[in-house]
């Protein structure tokens, strides 16, 4: 088998190259199926409980995904004829937004009042061309006292107004629709910006968040991937000092990426903010394979071997380690499938595929093309003492100090890793350069936070919300929500009832209370509903048989813990005070708030499985139970220390970081494999532990250093992403990879020197 | 090449085709509005003389999840030949709106006049809203979808022919004159033989298809008047729908003008 492979690769290089290229081309045709998907729902499984709750609520009431435009005069308040005309005109034109189903603003608010014995329902500004001072006065009065407006569509000081466009996005991929909506609104904003240069416009809301997700993915694809190529070129140039070597590595990298993305397309994956990292990851991992092969080849050439001999030796030396490291890395990435986040599972699967393709290409296409291209290296003597041998000597001398020191570091790191808390706040994924983040911060500063939660209260009986007891509870629940310090605004049907009751009693203030009986409530509502215009109805707040109502809550931008705690308190309140009502809560923020924890729990299970599988491979590869078990320590310590450092540095674990554990495990295992296998080889030659450590440093010290540099640079490129899920993931993985090298260079030899004192002959009986 | 007779014939043939096409297309462009209006007038004309009617209706509301709920009501209608028709809707179910009565005077040009009697308050209230596009009792029918058809409420454009339920139809586009209408336009499929609508598509302010109304189970009354006993409105944007089933309809019941005023509201039970 091995003979056949080497013969084919070395003696029929054209055939090998032909088949490699054919394979790449076949895969590549799938790339056209790859589509950008900016939907935040790529992070949630179909059966995610929060997603189900949210979608159910959207189906029972109405969809309420919004695009919001904040309009504010650069100076003064919005309550002047000019700004109000702007808002009114803008609101009217906003109806033209594609897929819009509703537009709400202060100017089209359906104001009700009593006149003689009649109830008038009329939008606050009926004619944008006839706004005079008395009307401005009236609008200001209503806007700042109406609970459905203040802190929601206008701030308490009247500095900013919000136009909220509710859109009916289709299920599934909505990037095209999102782009249409965003384009349409931007054009509208641009138009009004030039008409009213003394006003500011900002865009927030879920639609713009989706668009921001997508543009983050596109930006990453457009900037990080090319940057990665530059980094790889430089690193290869420096490390290999061979033009041909650099070029063929690039070819392998490009082929690996193209085939991976192509296969991803065939399988039906989307390009999301997560999977857009696949090229970078595959590139990083493929380069490591090639570096090993080419470095060995060049080494053999320098020792004076012919090229074909050198390639053969390199292949024989590297095929197995590259296979093992690729397999462990692939397993690490595959366990991302345990994630509750589909996008991250896709990232894991695609990268695992890419890693294995890179492996196959680096033992087929790579040697074949190297066979055909001219490669020279000046024959020279190997340097007898390199840096790593010196390092090895130092470790051997100091190992009794290193060990306790390491233990202190580990204890400290594990301790500080408890500083980490799981937190997913979608707004915080974007850095300050993102327009969406700036707008969100602006909204938070002047109007309200970006966190929204929708609560639905179900009475489980037809017309149940008209029942005085239910209505009282809905009102009390709304009051409880409003009283919470983190809440900015609450939009509830109970406020509508208060107002209607007053209007129906000639606007007497003492009737600003809930209707006394069910008939009154039902009939007021009927009258009110008949008076509302198209799409400004109550269908977003009431279900069809009026058995349930939806309450909209806007809150400060909160972390996962605070949001889930708030949700829990709300459930508790209803259980304590209105047990006959059924409460459900749903929102994008809630989905994100829950995903971190669920994801972390499931990924921990995945990581344990990865650990078992990888240790199994190591036991098999090292052919030793003992070495396999020892390998657990250097495999686990880096992650522990890495998360410890993270606890001190940031302390916030988003869902991007939750995948780092299993991903990093697959990568750092490589170092351990290389070091332990060389150490073990020396021990089997009946060398002492000391000499075995020396041998390991001499033979793989540099290779480990090189791959660590390459991998760290690869992940460092990810840290440049403006999207926190990617940049944090890159940073923490990078940290762990560096720590892993330190552990393998410092702790592992010290550990072996202390604990591996037995004679090897005893060990051999345990071989498998 | 000789310019013979055949050439001449052919040339004159071409010429006349071009001439005819020009005239014809001009004629169509001019008459598509006229033809639309003609059909609308014929539609209204064919329905003249029904006098008054009393109907019992059930309204079934469905959401996209398949949940449904029912409303029951009675509808009294009075034809006013020289003005807009009058209608009185009495709600029977849900129970908490039982006895609520709704009176509407339909007007061709100015806004409809509307009153509602709330038995719980024992008061008649005028609905002083110009909004007619809101949902009727939370259904997918807007109030304006349920009022009597008046020719003067729209401008027309004849679009062509089609077949619905194996019957030949005219397609007429009608654009509401009232700026407070919820629609930019409606596309109406009108039976070529009976001049009654079988299907209506409603387009929202941004001119996307919002709702489709299907009219089924047309039954002939008094040998002249077609009434659809089952109509269903589908909201194409949110997946909700509302079906109206007419259980019973009676014509010429002897209702008169005095049964359609503010005082009659309180008596309606």
UniProtKB/TrEMBL annotation, chain A:
Keywords associated with the record: Cell membrane, Membrane, Transmembrane, Transmembrane helix
Residue intervals of the SSD domain: 247-372, 663-754
The keyword Membrane appears for this protein: yes
Entry protein name: SSD domain-containing protein
Topology term for the membrane: Multi-pass membrane protein
Domain of life, per lineage: Bacteria
Record carries keyword Cell membrane: yes
Provenance organism: Aliiglaciecola lipolytica E3
Cellular-component GO terms for this entry: plasma membrane
UniProt cross-references to PROSITE patterns, sorted A to Z: SSD
Species lineage: Bacteria, Pseudomonadati, Pseudomonadota, Gammaproteobacteria, Alteromonadales
TrEMBL record, chain B:
Identification of the protein by name: Uncharacterized protein TP-0789 domain-containing protein
Domain of life: Bacteria
Keyword annotations from UniProtKB, A to Z: Signal
Presence of keyword Kinase: no
Domain Uncharacterized protein TP-0789: 84-267
Signal peptide annotation: 1-21
